[in-house]
Design a protein that fits this description.
Neuraminidase
Length: 283
Amino acid sequence: MNKGIPAVLVLAVSLTVAVPGIAAQASGKEAKGLRVVSEQTASGFAFPESVGCDSRAKVLYVSQFGSELKPTEKDGKGKISKVSLAGKVLEDRFLPAHGEVLHKPKGIWVKGERLWVTDIDVVWVFDLKSRRGRKLELRGITFANDPTVLGNSLYVSDNRADQLYRVEPADFFDQKITPQVTIVFVGRSIHPNGLFPARDGSLLMVGFQSPKQPRGIHAPRPDGEFTALSRDIGRLDGVYQLPDRSLLVTDWDTGTFARWTAKGGMQTLASGFKGPGRFLRHL
């Protein structure tokens, strides 16, 4: 993952994907001038939910629900498309491979030759070369949302049941591996949605709860408790940490893509999104 972010792709729950270019510098002083410098729209996606970036291959992967929104329906119509950095669809159904089924694929995380994606009550890990995958059931999960790899652990959020899961090892593609699944917490009024590995080694979590119930930004403490980094500020979906440790977030309540700092709060960078979701985090 590069330290700078030359572009950030914000994904909305509609048939469009907006691509704002971001001008960002490493220092906090210079980052105050963060702004959107360009916007593009790529259309034709069937209820896209999340997008991940393969920085080595310089391509994007977009999870799509298919013909209907219905995020918990097991209809076998889900897919992951391979898309150029300019938004051109290179392969409409890159994943899953023949014989494997996705229903409503949601959050995506890409690292090396692996791609992780959540799908209602399971999490998949795919090998990007062979396109084969392995599915892991997450017992007790109600809405597997965002996967994030931190060290040798895979974290999966469940915002509807206010839970966070940990899978070890993160890369369980090998059938000989028996992954260990742990519920990190449940019922803490965090409702974790988007996850991101912070630069200090902790895990950042932004909260989302429906109906319109604002949630905030949290991070775990060494004692196992959690620190609220912000007040309840919205229904937050995507999160990314910039080099100056400020955050880029998306907010369903305001339909915005924004920068958040502890001192300055939310700074809107782009607006007018309908259901802004997770954006690429690996350029």
